[in-house]
Every structure is written in C-alpha cells, then in structure tokens.
Amino acid sequence: MKKALATIGSAISYLAVAGTAFAQIGGVEAPDSGIKDIPAAISNGINIVLIIAGIIVFVYLVWAGLQWMTSGGDKGKVEEARSRITAALVGLAIVAAAYALSVVINNFFIGENDTSPFENIDTSHL
Known about the structure:
Helix content: 55-70%
Largest sheet: none
C-alpha cells in the first residue's frame, strides 16, 4: 500500500513540475510539455484510477460468483465466496463514493458541470 501511494504521489508531483521543468534559455523556446492545466491533469488521473478500480471490483465480483457456482455445496467454499461477494460490493460502494467525491471536488475547484470521467482526457496525442 505504501509503495502504491508513493508511486501515485511521485506521479502527481511529476505532473505538477513537468510544465515548469524547461526554461527559455538564450532565445530557444521551451518544448511543449503537453500539460496545459494542472487541475485537469489531476482530475484525469483520479478518473483513470477510479475506472481501473471499478474494473478490478467487477472482476473480483465475477470471480466470487464463479467460486460460488463451482463450490459444489461445500459450506466452507460457499461462505468464502459469499464473503468475497460482500467485499466486492463494499469495494464497489467505496469506488462509487470516491467517484462522487471527485466530481464534487472537480466542480468546486474547476467549475465544470459535466460529470463524465472521459471529458477531460486529452486524446489528441493518440
């Protein structure tokens, strides 16, 4: 967990500094870093992480359902599958709450009313 938080923190700090890393020296223009708006970049990062978390929760839920179907009536396996389904649903609720919180923060700081997670993703370089 600490390693994941450190990776996310270093990625965010890179995004915050990347736009100012190049200075104009001797009449040569600084290259375009691609980041025009730091809050939009952070919003894009949060949306991407939440989408990935939602996909992981869905896969975990399907895995638990398959485990339940293949348990063959064994009470231990059924209880294990039930606890996995419960954990997946709790994870889904956490992801939904995190998404709602990110939309509220996005609207508060950026002032956009669109709640689409794909709206701010820059696909011009693809």
